Please model this.
Amino acid sequence: MNITNEIENPKWKNFFKHDANDIDCKHCKFKKAEDSIPREDFQQNTTNPETNEVTTKTITEITLDYDDNDCVRGWFWQ
Model:
C-alpha cells in the first residue's frame, strides 16, 4: 500500500498523553484513527446501477486527510 501525505511525527503525539481516567481521552481517539489506516492493498467492489454489473478494483494507494492536530480525519483513493 502506498500512502501519500503521511505525517511521520503528528502534533498530537507531543500534545496529548494517554489518560486512563478520561473516557474521552484524545490520545486514544487519535491513536485509534491512526490505527485505522490500511497498510495492505484491499479490494473495492463497484456496482454499475444500469447493468448491475459488479467490478472489483484493487486499491494500492490512498491519500490521508488530517485535522488541525494532525489527527487522521479520513483517507481516500482515486
